[in-house]
Amino acid sequence: MAEIKPFNGYVFSPEKAGDLGKVMAPSYTVKSEDERDELYARSEYNAIRLVDGKAFDTDTQTENRFTRARDYLNKWIKDGVITKFEKPAIYLYEQAVLFNGTPFKNRGFVALLHLDDFGKQVVSCEDTTPVNKKYRFDLISQTKTNFNMISCLYIETEKQLLNLMTEISDTSPDLDFRYVDGTRERLWSICDKDKIDFIVSALSNHRLYITDGQNRFETSLIYQQECKKNNPNHTGKESYNYIMALLNNAYDDGIVQLPYHRLVKFDKPFNESFLVSALQDCFKVEKIIIDSDTSDLVDTIKRQIFLKRTQNAIALYCGKDYFYRITILDRSTAKERLKGKSDAYCSLDVAVLNSLILEDLLGINDENYDERVSYSKSVAEGTKKVKDGEFGCLFAINPVRDSQIRAVATAGEKLPSKSICLFPKPITGVIMNILD
What band does 428 get if pLDDT is binned at 50, 70 and 90? Predict the structure, then answer.
């Protein structure tokens, strides 16, 4: 059984912090000092100071970005900028966004998830890329806070929990604001014992699949072990045994899954004709010419690979007014190449792309992957970067399907890194969990 429980969350007070959209931070690590400076400038209370604050040459072991995060947090709580919910609650978190002109509502319950369930009812779906776990460990050690929630999918075909979400979302939320990107963010605290008991009981019967935040989860496991080592009276119920998690139903129509397209760099001039010729050993290669504007190119790429989404269809774009649709000729080719992997794993577009194209044809492996390959959630962004000469080519793929996530996890495997992207991602600062 997956063990979840309510908690006393901490949130920014609009009366003291001002516009909540300006105090929130992105879910990802900022990419540059300019971006960090912009977040600092949005508000004196922007949450970037808590999760990814500035470092200085004068920093010491006792005065650094982690101790400053701790001090900011303590001061903001003391000043009422951050306030605590009086009663333990499970929270309904909803993000409403327009995506490609269509409105979506990404909804889920926020609760504490017991770390010891990992590998039993809680499983990881995706390989992780190397990160500085020491950074994350130092941050939680100083602040003793979950500033971000991890994301988990559960599978509930009956939709009883979804019906409860709809019922709750018809009431007035505790928080209601727009993030700077226009996404409407709403949060409800659920304190009613009967509702909490129903949620806890219903979710205890479901396996939870971690779709985002695996590195944070692993860091929390390390922190838990450190706390256990220093606590001779450890019971398993201490606050360090839990992590804040967003629990989404995979059958919720509001969830948008985006693919991570791959952009490839080349040390030498990119040889398009060589690659296209080499691809034909394992793939059907169709050249599709677009004689109109960029938007038609992007729409056509997405449409043409979507039409073949069950056949490992991938688009190759090299910067001109055409692209290639690449479709695997024989699924057994992937099975033979990926020996020991399940059929579910071998059916993944990204697994086919990584093994049969990037590694076998372009010499991109685990050692140089991060140097040669970059990611984009947008075909439009990807094609522009190729046109501008920043990358040699773009490989566009379809989003992974929920059934594939479940099948790969059930087989005891993980999807390749950067396979899953639920959109929109929870922002940083909407709710926090402070460990006792």
Answer: very high
Widest distance between CA atoms in the chain: 71
- Cβ contact 69:51 at 8 Å: yes
Residues 6+ apart with CB under 8 A from 270: 318, 392, 393
Contact 147, 51 (CB under 8 A): yes
Domain count for the chain: 2
> How far apart are the C-alpha atoms of 151 and 427, rounded to whole Å?
12
- Which amino acid would we find at residue 371? E
Backbone angles phi, psi at 349, to 5 degrees: -55, -45
Asked if the model's pLDDT at residue 420 lies above 70, the reply is: yes
**φ and ψ at residue 180, rounded to 5 degrees:** -65, -20
DSSP letters, 69-107, are HHHHHHHHHHTTSEEE-SS-BEEEEEEEEEETTEEEEEE
pLDDT per residue over 70-118, tens digit each?
999 999 999 999 999 999 999 999 999 887 677 888 899 999 999 987 7
Q: Where are the alpha helices (DSSP H) in 230-375?
A: 272-279, 294-306, 331-337, 343-346, 349-352, 369-372
Does residue 276 sit within a domain?
yes
Q: Do both 164 and 34 map to the same domain?
A: yes
Taking each helix axis as running N to C, give the angle between helix 214-229 and helix 133-143, from 0 to 180 degrees, rounded to the nearest 10.
60
Q: Are residues 302 and 394 in the same domain?
A: yes
Query: Which CATH number belongs to the domain containing residue 283 in this structure?
Result: 3.30.1760
User: The domain containing residue 158 runs over which residues?
Assistant: 4-256+423-434
Average pLDDT over residues 164-173: 96
